[in-house]
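Input chain follows. Return structure tokens only.
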Amino acid sequence: MTNEHWNQAYTEKTPDQRSWTQPEAHDSLSLIRESHVCKDAAIIDIGGGASLLVDALIEDGYTDVTLLDIASAALTETEVRIGNKASYLCADITLWTPERTYAVWHDRAVFHFLTTPEQHDAYLNAFLTGTESSSHLIIATFAPTGPESCSGLPVQRWSQHDLARFFKPHCEVISTFETTHTTPWGTLQPFTWLHARRK
């Protein structure tokens, strides 16, 4: 998983050619609303890239939103669209050390691309550094019946049980469920969701 790979994925494809494109991020926005954090609470979207979730959050009144993505091209796409209404961090999550903490840690894009125990541990360390007690974790991965690869890369699929178990030593599980994402060309992709709160 490299900056070059993902920059190419964004620069060579329009939004309607990217499997992960969502016209509206209903599930993400609903779970963030259900967390009942203040409108000025710090929210980070891991792998947020060119997602329209940030637009919806700003429209909803949230004022402290950060996007972290490995692809500078994705962040540039969003910055051209919304300007300085959000903050932007270009980094590999497995090498990144947060410099602040966030009330909501959201990830619908990255975790399933991490396929080794070392990558999982690095992600967990970033999450624990970048959150504190009572912070919310909202994460979605490909479900067990989801695709085995995405954008030319292998993925790790997670069940509700296994995803909850991975974070449970550090979090109180609020809910788990599955949804189905429809790609711009009509393919169905099952996702596993977890909403939890840091202990």
